[in-house]
Amino acid sequence: MSVNAVRIMWRVTRLNFRAQLEYRTEFLMMIAIGAVWQVSVIVFATVLLSRFAGMGGWDSSDVLLIPATRMLAHGLFVLVLGRVHGLGRHIQEGIIDTCLVRPMPVHRQLQLAYFPTNAIGDLTVAAGLMAGAVSRSHLDWTAGRVAYLIAAVLGGMLLEAALFTAVACASLRFPAADYWGRWLEELLGTFGSYPLNVLPRAVGGLLTYGLPLAFVAYFPAAVLTGHGHDTGVPYWPAALSPLLGVVAYLAARLLWRRGLRHYAGVNG
Amino acid sequence: MAVLHAWRAARVTPLGELHTPPRITAALLRLTVQVVLVASLWRGLYAHTGSTAGLGRDQAVTYAVLAVLASRLRELDQFTGRDTVIQHMHFGTIVYWYLRPLSPGRYYALRALGEQLYGLAWALVGYAACLAAGVVRPPGSAAVAGVFALSLLLGQWVLYYVMLVLDQLCFWTLRNNAAMMILIFAQNLLSGVYAPLWFFPDWFVTLSAFLPFQATLSVPLSLYIGRIPLSDAAGALALQAAWVLALALFTRFLWRRAALRVISQGG
Lengths: 268, 267
Prior knowledge:
With 268 residues, chain A is an all-alpha fold. Helices cover 72% and strands 0% of the residues of chain A. The longest helix of chain A has 31 residues, at 143-173. Chain B has a two-stranded antiparallel ribbon with strand order 1-2. In chain B, helix 4 (57-70) packs antiparallel against helix 6, helix 4 packs antiparallel against helix 11 (218-225) and helix 7 packs antiparallel against helix 11 (218-225).
């Protein structure tokens, strides 16, 4: 990416941010919704932890590391790559067709479509939860552990981006596939925040091999907290979760290129 | 003739769904997976606990699965049909709602009725399947079933008005995305979709008692599983009815005020 492209992206992002400020109440409410949405995850996790001690054999401070990792990864995804979510609506309104005739890559145009104000709230709460989870943790936070945690957050962001990009690719052909994106968001939010070994083995397997939700936060947190051998999968695949995010995202972008080449708008 | 017009308006969204088989298949798959996941989660959580917050394992599983099924009652993608208030505001077509022989309020109500009846068909089929599979327990008695049905009706009525208020907000703010997301969050948290309200601290339960959300889902489901005994049902139903009345009057007032704000482009 050239320096000029980065400069354009920065200017567009600044303009988008100012555009969001046009509706002040909506702007503040979007920040609030990002925050309260994440708070709901914390409330749910806290209620479950207080009512059901020793969730899946995990200490409560260890469990907190799962929603913290997932929420931080999710917040970064919303901020940086989240506009692929809900692509079906852009297709329905013919926005993609306009993007195709402009000189900037379509994917980049999509990401620059608007500023995701809710990410501010998402990331604020996620950072707070991560700080709380790390401070309550009994682990010795060596440089290696911190580096792995950072890699896990980035890997989780890329994995989530890969999943939503795959749904966006399907939307290019079937705009109704957007429906699956909303379900995916719901699944990640509901089942991505606690140890999956609390579920029956078949259901846990579904959320590992069917939908790689376990790789977003559960496996990295398990490796960090010493539960890496009790996850139901071999240790090394679980430990390499951040790398899976990178590989999955690259594959999703290839799929996107292919999907875009075969995209046919309303007028053929 | 009026009934025929009402029927035609009410069936618009369900017909849209029925003409899109992939959406129906997707809805079926999503509902099935969600029920299996939620039932598995609560069974797993209760694996080492007999009873907590006055709820046993079967009660908690039944509550959680019924909450998933009830969420089908208003989950149609109106956005695809381009007939949401915010879309009409965006495209400047809300004025057409005021040019028809049918009032906007009645048209909105009929569309919502059709959607909720379509959602109810899904929920009933899901309920029958869950009951046959032993995932949920049947109601304690015929009286409990009757009170639950009445309470669910009132709850959906309250939910309809709450959603309507949010849509009416567009007449003043043009956008309601953030407000809608906050509402969905509040609805899920305060009506007990995330977890039964009985699990939350006392202050939280007291706070939610002053809001309409628990009337939408928590009350009917608590009646079903027996957490609210039949002896207390009258009070719970009266509170739901009071919310229906209050919100009906409020939304009627808002419809009148909204009409004053609608102008067609060009004056």
